[in-house]
Design brief:
The chain is mainly α and 948 residues long. It has 46 helices and 5 strands. 62% of the residues lie in helices and 3% in strands. The protein is elongated and about 120 Å long.
């Protein structure tokens, strides 16, 4: 069972309670008034007061005002006294409460008297004075035997006769052992008797008035923790504060609603919090609205529909009110506690908005959104704001609405929100549109769907071409259709469509240039492309970039390829005027990476991604990011590579289109997971993204097929993995797709799998062929890996080849391959009997592997070091106990209180990745549980390094 919340941040008010009790006990009389909105804790404070008073020997009488009873006379007075007097109706018992002037009120509690049932409302001044004076003496008599506490909750709803008595009593408390405690909500702007009472109480020299404040975020966290049984994430606390404004009752009810719906207090729950409507709060809101006049209800509905755009003029338009009518309606809503003061109009809480909006009928919402769109459009509002309202209306909007939807769609694409753009355009397509305009709309929709990886792009782009009679429109749409077909795995069709817009004569405008760039890349990525590339005029940068690709595919040495690639980026990063997946500058950067110029490649790709994102070119940006992830992997920065790759794949689903960046990023992520000893997670990733089945025979999928083959081998499916590796290698060699760095990806695993399956001779032949190919090209990284692998499958010159491989990698920023080579070298030295000499490369390799989180290499190094006679510091440690950057990020988030799922969302990694990193952190820091992280991470200085 959940514990009830204690009174939080009410120490000042509780201090007032004790002071007032002491004052009354001393015979001085006291008045205590608690003021605040509903739910701030007034009733709880009064309950605390009653308990404390009873403990100290007070006679405690209490009553509560009611809106439905305020027109009945003496209702509060009767609640206060009738139970007490019912036990002694004659007043002759112990205490003689109704003796002396108090006898004036005997008939007030005699329900058999006819005039008391209805005639009291017409009491004259003298009779009213006699009654309140008798009630005053009743209090004096009661307090003569023990101190008296009168408690009136919700005093704003008290009847006016009872208010006369309370005011009369307050003015005569001096010298009496009586404490009057009131609680009330701030009065509306209209003048009424309750306000007179509060003013009278405030004016009394005996009065203490406490205005209750909302809770702080710290107290809100405690409320949520108490109700939910677990500490909430900071973002949950912040959003709950926004929704409830620190109101304790609302916080409690919201937490109960979260628990009822099984919503955990994690960062992932934040978007859903605004949709919750706690039942008790929703009922109060509906009751408040039900008492309002029709114009106020209409304005509330308009405000709910407009949300953040509820300026007075727009709200009046939607509600069907004139300016003065809207002002008057807003006053009613503010008096009811629904609207904040000021403009634009805004509800006090999102719960109120949600309740008002949900209670509207579908037809009411439809009409209100239509009027909202019209009002905002007339005021030249942001197209996206107008479009959101149009999307919530049915068919039959004016022509301007379609234009707004298309404009908002373009804006959404430019800001990287293609899914939103698709939603706007599909709404526009629901309107009847003549063929010429419909073709333009279909083309725009298909283009947005391509960016959103929606397979409907192919059909809509083809339909746009079919409906159009404008040759220029058709010429512009065909390259888009070619990209969509390629992303759908239909590369031969994509090449045919792209060529139809290339042309060999006429002006070379932006459309022609884009078509030719797309055609050239698609042709090169398709089977037979190296033998069927037409000659087109291309910009100089494109000519140089494609020359670098051609030089590499023809087997020219690394120097020639690097010169062409360097020349292509010599004038800086220049992107085509329109979006393409692989602009020349990205191709050039890729070739620089193959030539071992990894820093230059990373710099270029980073600039391409930023510039493309800034200009809304999502295809260019996505592909550049995936290639940058590959470069990060090649430099051994596994955590960074994993983060970037996951960002590319974040919204990819099995049914989506697969543009070039997706298989490249997926390959990088699989390699990262293999290196960090998470092969099962890699397999799950491939299934979730639909990349575990048959893949197209196209160049972008070569890296992924190599990664899948390697993964199968690591999962002990040697024959399956070997078959995929060798089949992919044969295809890539035949088509000129086997890029140099592919050697680093597949050769070691392929050779070992061949040896394991009994084909040692085939393994040697494969490795020798690769060594010769790498020597011919001349890049250091692939040649070093080939030499290292050759040492593992041959018995002669093994140490010499490993030393050559190590020297080749000395000046190359590839930490992973250097670590792997050092460990292989140390292992070979150990096996040759040079145990002492083996420790130096093994130690260096371990430190490199540990620093980048390469768990498989680090584990091999530790095992070899033990065999070489090195005693490691403790279980789970290497020679270096410092956290890797990835482990440090995860540890810090965990120390801040985030759950594994929240950390995975913030860092764009899987939950299993978080779990793995935390396991490494616990072992390195020598702790056993999560709660120790804040203490350990707060210690000054880095973790200690120890070695034998």
């Amino acid at each position: 069972m959940r514990r009830e919340n204690r009174l939080l941040e009410r120490d000042r008010e509780l201090g007032f309670v004790q002071s007032a009790l002491q004052q009354a006990m001393g015979g001085d009389g006291a008045v205590l008034a608690f003021e605040g909105a509903g739910g701030l804790g007034k009733t709880s404070l009064l309950q605390s007061l009653r308990v404390a008073a009873q403990t100290q020997g007070f006679t405690v009488l209490h009553a509560r005002g009611s809106e439905l009873e305020r027109d009945f006379p003496w209702t509060v007075v009767r609640q206060l006294f009738e139970r007490l007097l019912a036990a002694d109706p004659t007043g002759t018992g112990d205490g003689a409460a109704l003796t002396g002037p108090a006898a004036l009120i005997r008939t007030l509690f005699d329900y058999d008297q006819d005039h008391h049932s209805g005639g009291l409302a017409a009491l004259g001044d003298d009779e009213l004075y006699a009654t309140v004076h008798g009630l005053y003496w009743l209090c004096c008599n009661l307090s003569a035997r023990q101190p008296l506490l009168l408690v009136v909750d919700d005093a704003q709803w008290a009847d006016r006769f009872s208010l006369h008595f309370i005011s009369y009593l307050i003015n005569r408390l001096e010298g009496e052992s009586v404490l009057v405690a009131l609680a009330h909500c701030p009065a509306p702007s209209a003048h009424d008797a309750a306000q007179d009472l509060i003013m009278s109480a405030r004016a009394s020299p005996l009065a203490t008035v406490a205005r209750l404040a909302p809770l702080s975020e710290g107290a809100a966290r405690e409320v949520l923790t108490t109700q939910l049984g677990t500490a909430p994430h900071d973002s949950v606390v912040h959003r709950c504060m926004e929704i409830t404004e620190g109101n304790p009752l609302h916080l409690t009810e919201l937490a109960k609603e979260m628990a009822l719906r099984g919503l955990p207090p994690t960062a992932s729950a934040v978007p859903r919090l605004r949709l919750l409507s706690p039942t008790s709060i929703a009922w109060d809101i509906r009751r408040s609205i039900g008492r309002l006049p029709e114009p106020a209800v209409a304005l509330a509905q308009a405000t709910a529909v407009l949300d953040t755009d509820a300026a007075p003029q727009h709200s009046a338009d939607v509600a069907g009110l004139d300016e003065s009518g809207a002002d008057e309606a807003a006053k009613y809503l503010r008096d009811a506690g629904l609207l904040r003061s000021g403009t634009p109009y805004a509800f006090h809480s999102s719960v109120a908005r949600h309740v008002v909006y949900a209670d509207m009928t579908a037809q009411q919402r439809h009409q209100a959104h239509r009027r909202a769109a019209a009002s905002l459009h007339a005021a030249d509002a942001d197209p996206a704001a107008v479009a959101e309202h149009v999307c919530r209306t049915g068919p039959g909007v004016p022509p301007w609405a379609v234009r707004v939807l298309r404009s908002a769609s373009s804006q959404a694409v430019h800001t990287g929100q293609p899914v939103t753009a698709v939603r706007y355009l599909r709404r526009a397509l629901a309107e009847p549109t003549p063929d010429p305009a419909r073709a333009h709309l279909l083309a725009q929709l298909g283009s947005a769907e391509l960016l959103a990886r929606d397979r409907a792009a192919v059909g809509h782009l083809a339909e746009a071409i079919h409906h159009s009679r404008d040759r220029e429109v058709i010429r512009a749409v065909r390259p888009e259709l070619a990209l969509a077909l390629a992303a759908d795995g239909r590369y031969p069709e994509a090449v045919d469509v792209a060529r139809q817009s290339c042309g060999t004569d006429g002006p070379q405008d932006a459309v022609t240039t884009r078509a030719r760039l797309i055609e050239r890349v698609l042709t090169r990525m398709s089977r037979g492309g190296s033998r069927a590339t037409p000659a087109y005029d291309l910009p100089p940068g494109a000519v140089r970039a494609h020359a670098a690709v051609e030089a590499w595919s023809r087997g020219l040495p690394v120097g020639r390829v690097a010169r062409f690639a360097g020349a292509a980026v010599a004038d800086g990063v220049r992107l085509p005027d329109q979006d393409v997946e692989l602009p020349p500058v990205s191709l050039a950067a890729w070739m620089l990476a193959q030539c071992d110029d990894l820093p230059a490649a990373e710099q270029v790709l980073t600039r391409v991604a930023r510039q493309a994102s800034r200009h809304g070119r999502l295809l260019t940006a996505t592909t550049a990011e995936s290639m940058r992830a590959r470069v990060l992997l090649d430099t051994g920065r596994l955590a960074e590579a994993e983060t970037v790759a996951r960002s590319v794949l974040r919204d990819h689903h099995a049914t989506d289109l697969t543009p070039v960046g997706v298989p490249v990023a997926a390959a990088v992520l699989v390699h990262c997971l293999i290196e960090t000893d998470r092969p099962a997670e890699a397999e799950e990733l491939l299934k979730a993204t639909g990349l575990d089945g048959t893949l197209p025979d196209a160049a972008p999928f070569v890296p992924l097929r190599l990664a899948r083959g390697r993964l199968s081998i690591r999962l002990a499916r040697d024959e399956d993995g070997l078959q995929e590796l060798l089949a992919c290698r044969a295809l890539a060699l035949a088509e000129g797709w086997l890029y140099p760095s592919a050697t680093t990806e597949y050769l070691t695993d392929a050779a070992r799998a061949l040896a394991v399956t009994g084909s040692v001779r085939a393994a040697r032949a494969l490795v020798l062929e690769e060594v010769n190919r790498c020597r011919a090209f001349g890049a250091a990284r692939p040649l070093a890996v080939a030499l290292r692998t050759l040492a593992s499958v041959t018995s002669d010159k093994g140490l010499a080849r490993l030393e050559d491989a190590d020297r080749l990698l000395e000046d190359v920023p590839d930490t992973l391959e250097r670590a792997r080579t050092l460990v292989e070298l140390g292992s070979a030295l150990r096996r040759a009997g040079h145990r002492t000499q083996a420790r130096q490369p093994l130690t260096a390799g371990l430190e490199l592997a540990h620093g980048i989180g390469a768990a498989t290499v680090a584990a091999a190094a530790r095992s070899e070091l033990r065999l070489a006679g090195t005693r490691l510091s403790r279980v789970g440690d290497g020679l270096c106990t410092a956290l890797t950057p990835a482990e440090e990020r995860v540890a810090q988030k965990a120390a801040e209180g985030l759950s594994n799922k929240e950390i995975s969302r913030e860092l764009y990694v899987s939950v299993k990745t978080v779990e793995w990193h935390l396991g490494q952190v616990y072992a390195k820091l020598g702790i056993a549980k999560r709660s120790e992280l804040p203490r350990v991470l707060a210690l000054d200085g880095p973790p200690v390094r120890r070695s034998s």
